[in-house]
Description:
37% of the residues lie in helices and 23% in strands. It contains six helices and ten strands, in the order H-E-E-H-H-E-E-E-E-E-E-H-E-H-H-E. The protein has helices at 8-11, 34-37, 41-53, 98-118, 135-147, 156-168; strands at residues 16-21, 31-32, 56-61, 65-67, 73-74, 78-83, 86-91, 94-95, 123-127, 174-177. The strands form three sheets. The protein has a five-stranded mixed beta sheet, with helices on both faces. A three-stranded antiparallel beta sheet has the order 6-7-8. Strand 3 (56-61) and strand 4 (65-67) form a beta hairpin. Helix 4 (98-118) crosses helix 5. The longest helix is centred in the middle third of the chain and has 21 residues, at 98-118.
Amino acid sequence: MRGHLLSSRQVLGMKTLYVTYCSGEKKPVDEGTPEQLYDSRRIDDFISVCKSKGYEWAILSAKYGLFFPYEVKKKYNVTFKSVAHECRIVENGTVLPERESRGRFNSLVEQVRKCIAEKDIERIVFYCIQPLKRRKCYLNVLHKSADSCRINHETWDEFVKHIKKMYSDRTGRTRLVMRLEDLTV
């Protein structure tokens, strides 16, 4: 022991990562850690809860993938937009062409999948608030990366039901949480 109490996930041998999605609003800096870069009460509250409970956490960025608290990244303007049930990349306010968007989305999924494997992450708790339309793309990146799902879920309700079923059946590693107080192992 390193001079602190073990968290429940360490006792259980389960490595859990707590994740929320990035924010379009950034602080007036050129680069920084997630805390220094994002200007979002949701993210601030999420980080505060994770720190108070000793959780490992990251922000899911549409540009960088999983952005951990010890990393420094350049400020960016990239997000997602759901177009005809497909996630498209929006960069500097412009929706990228379908082919380019799909390629960048798939690269992001692969980057996140590789990170999950390298860090031996066994479970992801994804904190998402409503409205959910654009957040579906972020959840889709995590679901495809962590759960290796190939299904294109058209409706949010169908998607959530599928993720919850996979998690409860222990065939999926992604747990969706929509309230801060539900951020538990």
